[in-house]
Amino acid sequence: MIGGGIDTGTRIVGPDVDFLAIGPVLALAVAALVVILVRAILRKRGPVNQISLGVGLAGVAAAGVLLGIQWNEVRDDGTITTIAGAVRLDTFGVFLGVVVLAATAMSLFLAASYLEREELEAPEYYALMLLSAAGMLTMTTANDLIVVFVALELLSIPLYVLAAFDRRRLSSQESGIKYFVLGAFSSAVFLYGIALTYGATGTTSLTGIADFLSANTLFEQGTLLAGLALLLVGLGFKVAAVPFHMWTPDVYQGAPTPVTAFMSSATKAAGFAALLRLLGVAFPLYRTDWRPAILGLAVLSLAVGSIAAVIQTDVKRILAYSSIAHAGYILIGLQVDTARGRQASLFYLLVYAFMTVGAFAVITVATRKGDDKHSLDDYRGLALRRPVVGGLLGFFVLAQAGVPLTGGFVVKLEIFSSAVDAGEYGLAIVGVLAAVVAAFIYLRIAVALFTSPGGEAADASEDRPVDRWTAAVLAVTTAAVLFAGILPGAWLTFAKDATFL
Amino acid sequence: MILSLEITGSYYLVVAALMFSIGAVGLLVRRNVLVMFMCVELMLNAVNLTFVTFAEMLDDVTGQVLVFFTLAVAAAEVAVGLAIIVAIFRRRRGATADDLTVLKG
Fold first, then answer.
1. What percent of chain A has pLDDT over 70?
2. Are A195 and B54 inside 8 Å of each other by CB?
3. Which residues of chain A are within 8 Å of residue B24 when distances are taken between CB atoms?
4. Please, which residues 60-89 of chain B have a Cβ atom closer than 8 Å to chain A?
5. List of chain A residues whose C-beta atoms are within 8 Å of the C-beta of residue B12
């Protein structure tokens, strides 16, 4: 042997990598890097914007095709575990991947015209959004707490920048710094939860934790329970559940509207992916410990999200509080902890993504340049002046309120019936009461849209026509919300196939 | 007389827990954004100490590897965080959170 006793011929064997399982993440990450490269090489502004949007959409399309292949693969052949157990590809992960990717595609469409209008740096924006989406897709298939953490940071760090993206607008910068400080705090809390869980079980693998807990009885449970609590706090921040919601109204209001659309739909789906997997895969044996905690989060989110929205006067803030309330409904499905409940939560996440992106899509075109006039007064009479735009905003807020024949009604019904099935009558009643209170604020928006502003008539010449990118998003979201409301069968089957953890 | 004090793993864990608490409380009570930022770093380093201690107690190398992940992520977070802080306070007097009052309600 040469080299002082070291066998230089030793092959270092890495873990097996199934590239199909991480394909969508790679597609988005490569697209983001190409966008940055193009930006660095080409100098002319116009073509760079077009090329980077094209590359971004190509990346999303490639990821979508790969998700389709994954879905067929895992539905027929079962779960794939790869990279030394760090990644676990199952129907659950693919389903939420589809939600994230749909939200990403629609947010890119919205950004295309928005960035041009507000004169913002488009390529950087697309690259950050693609990277964030890559983090979310990693999150949906993560089977190891440290992968969850890295994914959490990969999705959060670009979002901090995106929230502060409009450098000229103080409110955007302020939302960025607030999101950053609270996001960093929640990440640290989450990480401490990982450390304590690791200390108690000796592993960070989700399936490893479950195996350890079923094989051993812990002599002292304090460390593990503290770890679990901290993990819940960290993810509670990400999904905007009360009492970890303080950042949500400020960030949703200040961030550029396409970013708000992205945060409320995709980030929520990714956060719930981690939450569902953590509780369902790693801690099923501790359900008697975490169910009361989730119950508390759900009830508080419903109450605060619905009641606090009533006193708001800014439309983006109202939608932020309503997103907190929606997190409460999704938590109900998590709390009942049955296959039916999980199915209802997944279905809710899918339909909610379309409802919220649709609402924010209208907001991007309903207001004038500057993106800071969103008070109810600014929206007064919108439906009289611009029937299509105002009517669509009315449609989306009524869908969020849960009016029959829209997806918002069916998803709430599913959540409530899953709670009743599991004997959680109290929770179902709280949910219905919250829906009634929240209906008030949604109706307030709808009424404002259809009442004449009084005083001087708004200057119609400043109204922007709806560009074709936004029109496409509005068409897709409207169709999806109506389709989910009238013919929910196919969607429900899709969500049902995805409940195997 | 020789005073013998055996430092066991739990001492390190307690120190880490104290560091984490100091960071968390500091983040919540201090108004200067840079100091709040340092508090986050304190929390992350408390977690690192916890990881290393558990790795030693469990005789398992995973915990030590995790520290590298934390360090890398913390570095990325610092870069982005400082950039946002610079961008926002370039146009203002001081770096205190009390000045951030555009968004409220």
1. 96
2. yes
3. 185, 188-189
4. 60, 62-63, 66, 69-70, 73, 76-77, 80-81, 83-85, 87-88
5. none
pLDDT tens readout for residues A109-151: 999 888 888 888 888 999 999 999 999 999 999 999 999 999 9
CB–CB contact B51 A198 (8 Å):
yes
Alpha-carbon span A387 to A465, nearest angstrom? 12
Which ipTM score applies to this complex? 0.91
- The per-residue pLDDT for A155 is 93
CB spacing of A203 vs B62 below 8 angstroms: yes
Whether A8 is covered by a domain: the verdict is no
Residue A429 is given by DSSP the state: H
Residue at A17 is within a domain: no
Which portions of chain B are predicted below pLDDT 50? none
Is A405 in a helix, a strand, or coil?
coil
* Domain total of chain A: 1
Q: Is the confidence at residue A8, as pLDDT, over 80?
A: no
Please state at what angle helix A145-163 crosses helix A122-141, rounded to 10 degrees: 160
Q: By residue range, what is the domain housing residue A333?
A: 23-497
The more confidently predicted of residues A369 and A21 is: A21
> Could you count the other beta carbons within 10 Å of the beta carbon of residue B58?
17
- Residues across chain B: 105
For testing contact with chain A, the best of B88, B89, B91 (most A CBs within 10 A): B88
The Cα diameter of chain B in Å comes to 65
Contact A150/B23, CB-based, under 8 Å? no
Instruction: Tell me the whole-structure pTM to 2 decimals.
Output: 0.91
Residue A86's contacts (CB-CB under 8 Å, 6 or more residues apart) are A15, A142, A143, A144, A146, A147, A205
Task: Give the whole-angstrom CA distance, residue A255 versus residue A240.
Answer: 16
SS3 at position A286: helix
Q: Are the beta carbons of A160 and B84 separated by less than 8 Å?
A: yes
What is the reported pLDDT for A455? Answer: 54
Angle at A192 between CA A201 and CA B64, to 5 degrees: 65
Mean pLDDT of A297-322: 89
> Which pLDDT tens digit goes with each residue over A57-85?
999 999 999 999 988 888 888 788 888 88
Smallest CA-to-CA distance from A326 within A354, A307, A298 is with A298
Helix/strand/coil percent split, chain B, to 5: 75, 0, 25
Residue A455 domain-assigned (yes or no): yes
Residue A339 lies in a domain: yes
Residues with Cβ within 8 Å of A474's Cβ and at least 6 positions away in sequence, in order, are A358, A361, A362, A392, A466
pLDDT of residue A19: 86
Q: Which two tokens stand for residue A308?
A: 């606090």
CA distance A488 to chain B (A): 37
Q: What is the mean pLDDT of chain A?
A: 87
Contact across the interface for A181 and B77, Cβ inside 8 Å = no
Inter-chain CB proximity A164 and B88 less than 8 Å: yes
Highest-scoring range by mean pLDDT, A113-122, A259-268, A282-291: A259-268
Q: How far apart are CA A128 and CA A281, in angstroms?
A: 31
